[in-house]
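Record 1 of the preview.
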Amino acid sequence: MEQIEIVKIVNKVYPLISKDNDCNAKIEYHYNIYERLSGEKGMTGEVCAHAEYDWNTNKIYLYTSRMNSVEDIVRSLIHECVHSTQYKVLFDKYYEVGETYDTHPYEIQARSAEEEWKIYLNEIEY
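->
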């Protein structure tokens, strides 16, 4: 998907997703995490998330290279909004004590919330 299409979809669904999840994070778009962190266009790496929440800046970074469908966009926004309501100290602590992405209680909560993604489809006109 082109970034302009992604932005249009986000503009339609994010106000409702943020309201439903008590999230006031700003959205920032980047091609991938490697470009965002390095500042170098064309930078790549092995693994790239769909999105990421930054507690320090209260931003959701959407990685456009991973946004291939409406479902990807909506699920990513829901997932990161859920993270925005969680406690960063506890989030980090779970990983410190050996939880993995699959077993981390906060990740489980965020993935579970994603399952409601279809309720936002009415907001998107095709």
